[in-house]
Amino acid sequence: MQYKLTVVFLLIFSISWAQKSPVDYVNPFIGTSNFGTTNPGPIAVRGMANVSPFNVAGPQNLPLEKDSRWLSTPYVHENTFLTGFSHVNLSGVGCPELGVILTMPTTGKIITDHLEYGSTYSNEISQVGYYSNVLDKYNIKVEATATTRVGVSKYSFPAGESNILLNLGLGLTNEEGANVKVVSATEIEGVRSVGSFCYYKPEEAYPVYFVARFSKAADEFGVWKKPTTYKGVESEWMGYNGKTRLMKGFTKEVVGDSIGAYMRYNFDSPTQVEMKIGISYVSLDNARENLEKETLDRTFDGILLDARKEWNQYLSKIEVEGGSEEDKTVFYTALYHTLIHPNTLNDVNGDYPKMKTRETLKTKGTRYTVFSLWDTYRNLHQLMSLVYPKQQSDMVKSMLQIYDESGWLPKWELNATETTTMVGDPAGIIIADTYLKGIRDFDVEKAYKAMLKSAGQLKDNPLRPGLQDYITKGYLTTKTTNSGSVSTTQEYNIADYAIAQLAKEMGEQSDYKRFGKRAISYRKLFDKEFNLLRPRNDDGSWLTPYNPESGANFEKNLGFIEGNAWQYTFMVPHDIKGLMKLMGGPKPFAQRLQDVFDKGQFDMANEPDIAYPYLFNYVKGKEYRAQKLVSDLLDEHFKNSPDGIPGNDDTGTMSAWAVFSMMGIYPVNPAAPMYALVKPKFDKITIHLDDEYYKGRKLVILSNTVENKEPIGEILINGKPHKEYFISHKKLVNASKIQID
Amino acid sequence: MQYKLTVVFLLIFSISWAQKSPVDYVNPFIGTSNFGTTNPGPIAVRGMANVSPFNVAGPQNLPLEKDSRWLSTPYVHENTFLTGFSHVNLSGVGCPELGVILTMPTTGKIITDHLEYGSTYSNEISQVGYYSNVLDKYNIKVEATATTRVGVSKYSFPAGESNILLNLGLGLTNEEGANVKVVSATEIEGVRSVGSFCYYKPEEAYPVYFVARFSKAADEFGVWKKPTTYKGVESEWMGYNGKTRLMKGFTKEVVGDSIGAYMRYNFDSPTQVEMKIGISYVSLDNARENLEKETLDRTFDGILLDARKEWNQYLSKIEVEGGSEEDKTVFYTALYHTLIHPNTLNDVNGDYPKMKTRETLKTKGTRYTVFSLWDTYRNLHQLMSLVYPKQQSDMVKSMLQIYDESGWLPKWELNATETTTMVGDPAGIIIADTYLKGIRDFDVEKAYKAMLKSAGQLKDNPLRPGLQDYITKGYLTTKTTNSGSVSTTQEYNIADYAIAQLAKEMGEQSDYKRFGKRAISYRKLFDKEFNLLRPRNDDGSWLTPYNPESGANFEKNLGFIEGNAWQYTFMVPHDIKGLMKLMGGPKPFAQRLQDVFDKGQFDMANEPDIAYPYLFNYVKGKEYRAQKLVSDLLDEHFKNSPDGIPGNDDTGTMSAWAVFSMMGIYPVNPAAPMYALVKPKFDKITIHLDDEYYKGRKLVILSNTVENKEPIGEILINGKPHKEYFISHKKLVNASKIQID
């Protein structure tokens, strides 16, 4: 059977043929293999809803099957067995969560076991705001798009018995429990329990609400439930013990761990059904309102067109010229990935759930969520501050809302739960950086207070465990924590540096001094013997014996979280000069830094060392190494293919690294308003700066020597030579033209 | 610690001391042992809500523990370990169902496992509309009362940490799944899945909604969830696998099979908290509206007073004088038990769920539910027609609503599900009986059509399986069914007799003849060899070998449901003369009937033979046997003690037997408007007949010879001798005085 492309879609194609827009360069399959954990499903800019193909359940997908291993994505490119489309998903995270509200179109009888109704698929297409495939088993063409809070699908059924299944049992999350009700022949509403991110904090599991609307009234509808299996004498009387039951025409709530609902049709001829699923983290009423406000009376094609339009507006904030088509694809896909998380938590009416206890609160701006800050404090928020400052401002405000609600700034916030994943105290770093870059329309006094709180509260401090030792000794010891005493000390150092910088700007001189001093306490962990950082025991002695390699490949170790001494020693971006001194000056520093790469210790796939290449800019005469390394790493790890992200995208952090690196600038010191410079990947990059925050200036980065591998010979800013390989944020956003050749 | 009785309560006591009212004679403990399956919790007249102590969970209650055996009641008098108070319950049924929405007051820490928080109890009091005990473990006094749709409790806590637990996991039903949300510090709302009555029809499981309000705002609240236990590799990462989690302050929905919510207080001094739980089978909004309309701004004491007032009005429709205090207690408790089921299904606003699919419908009168018709067609509805004709009229209308919604009259309807429990086609018998008694304010044409449908539709007939054989052969065979071919034939005969009687009244002469003929087809199953009924095989031969005793004690057998040939042969109340003829005349008939009792085959605890004693009235000169047997059976089986009902009350059928029998009248032929007469148990019985249906007449039954055991010497109606031992309904309701001496 052949499906015709819709007129609208042809239109998009024809436009793009004539002149490709940024949206046309995005390939959402990038990152869907190699544990990138992105998914190819449509999503609006920072959308709450996301219609992802779900192909990680069932033995057909082994070894990348969700229950057989740690797997944190609803979609893996090399898998083949699809069991539906999940409507809330996380992109580029390292823990399984969400991946629920699964829909699946089928034909023939109602089958509710996903292992039975699952299908292989072909003709897979993914573009910005659009996904499509054909389910081989049923010959159904599936298309999907999305608004901010609504997943929209179009199912092209062949003639005959057709079904749309809504499975609330299956999910990527390990949390269970749902409630579903068929409201009418065109509407289903329900609640699905999610939570326990990283198999942790189950007590903060929470509900996601949805309302599904169908463009065609079902000829039949119903719900199903697979109850738990009874044991004991009663099971003898239960002929139905543990068996799935189908409840045809049922119109009240059904509750359980393994339930679902279905709409059923009998078509005389091939027929399309459009389905819209509105999402809310507040209530069913809000899910319905979200659906109606965003999609009422709108067709799939119209919604798709608008989704792409919106994406194109955002992506066009940076225009690139020259460079290969592949580079453009890598670039815009990376930029696309930085615009997924943090995403929208609040409903159209401003309602959102309070942290943890989830009372309904109201926000004026966007309340963002999914703050994977240990990752994103390093570059993603810096990219936002530069290109999307309004969003960055709202993100900071969201962090302050979280502080208001929970008493603490976020660390790894997810849909109004603090998952407390990873280490450090990253929110303040982002806030200071944002403020120092001139984005100041938030309550900085409150922010400062919040930062001081986590930097000072010794007991019951969820952000800085071990703070007592850190303050008194200058570092965490192998007794303070059994995982990452050194790396956590470094994280606290960077956070303290950020406080110091903000204190200075705010005229808090004594805080500036105090935190400035605290910020370099990592120096006490520098061991001359190895010329690397090394954990100290409670009594001040070095951890002995000591192998600085231990900790590679995420191996758990006493000194470092997700890394080893090589991958962490240089992670003192605020005190590179101090580290140089410890190592004996610029030359030994550069040598040791080069060792990281030469000894194969550099890990592009995890955050601690991703700024390393840029550190060569601190050593006069060695800047060419930064340029070469960045260029090589881009070529090696960022590709136009499903495995085109070095590993977990970490909610856009890896992608932000690529975006910055390809533009030739990188925020090498997270709490300082400056960038390191390398050679860009494009002949011309135009950043359309924000009207409100940057007076709508246009920043152009030019390079005539992209093609050759020669080191940078000259940097001109507005035509004037620029001697350094760094540029301040202020100078950057006020420059018209930066020429790097 | 001593609790003071409230002033109101003392008031009730003082009034009753002066002159006992009918309510004061009710002992709700009657029937709570010996598998009577009534419960001592408060309930309004035909109430939807009922606050029953729940003492059937936990090994402490073995052998009468709910999961260790077939147990169909939330409360057993001899049990001692209480795990809460369930708010929707069935009374006098033979299958476990409902017994959910359990609340439990505790002190100290929050413990959510009922096996741990359960307690023994003392000072147990049960009266009409009131239950009270003291929980030994916590020294909490619990009091409970109810309106039609709201359970109302008063917990008297000692000083200190106190909790009210709302457990939605535990329940008598085998159905699981719930949804709960703490709305505020004074309100919790939720849904609990129930259904699968008699371990059957799980596909019709359905939700019950509730809203709980607390008179004091909780100092802390929360929810809990015990998830199912994961297996496989993921369980290694789940430190919380299968463990209960407490979610303090959580304010959104929590869904699961084993969940609950709690309100927590810290009292400076002993404090009372009142809790109201509104119930609905339609929606949360309706549960809230029920709660508000019935109890807003009303206190426990006021509600209790009104509950007792309402009960007294109903019970006072029959006033008895003379007789022992014990007899009065037995009588009024029995009458009380006939006013529990059928009970109210609709909300205060008239909403109720449609059969099976549960769309919301609206009713003008009361939509009754819990129609255990195989039981109640024999006498309970006859009692309603006589004493509470308005209710009986609404019950018939409810049956017609069920027909409208499902296409079939009810058989064993329970909260808008047809459980299809037991056999036969009993609704029509009741409808005909009601109509023939002059209660005619329902759509009799529709009713007649409905009766003809179940009597005529050969295929997919849920009421009369095996109808084809029944019509062509006159009986079901051992091939037609493997359980009860004879008894089901008898049930169909009675139902056909009812159609014939109604047809006659409506002038449908040919139907009258046809069904009159069909109604006596049981005669083909009469075997002269045994002088009893006997199953026939498909080829017409007798089932051989044949032991007419088999089937006693509910043993499953080919010929009879829940009985044997002895207990069923005389169950042809509409054709006693025909049966006499088969047996060789009145004398052999009386002898064979006497054999039933002499051979110990009579079973007072099950329906088929409960009219047997009255059949002696059909044999001139043997009427004394009826009188003696009824009197002896009342004395033996109906007592003022927990085991004071012969067995399962069968939603009031056993109680209705006692009520009629103690008044000296019994509706011996269910579809005929007449009664058999025996000697009453009271000197004077006054029935205040209904204004609307019986012009408010007062019927007095008198007897001067209650005390002696002599046979009846004379019956006078309005002073004139009455020669028969039967009386027509018409004559009865038009009589002023019936003297039986």
From TrEMBL, chains A, B:
Claim: Signal is one of the keywords in the record: yes
Signal sequence range: 1-20
SUPFAM superfamilies, sorted: Six-hairpin glycosidases
GO molecular function: carbohydrate binding; peptide-N4-(N-acetyl-beta-glucosaminyl)asparagine amidase activity
Residue span, Glycosyl hydrolase family 92 N-terminal domain: 25-280
Pfam families xrefs: Glyco_hydro_92, Glyco_hydro_92N
Keyword Hydrolase: yes
Reported cofactor(s): Ca(2+)
Superkingdom in the source lineage: Bacteria
GO BP, one annotated term: carbohydrate metabolic process
Subunit structure: Monomer.
NCBIfam families membership: aman2_put (TIGR01180)
Name of this protein: Glycoside hydrolase family 92 protein
Lineage, top ranks: Bacteria, Pseudomonadati, Bacteroidota, Flavobacteriia, Flavobacteriales
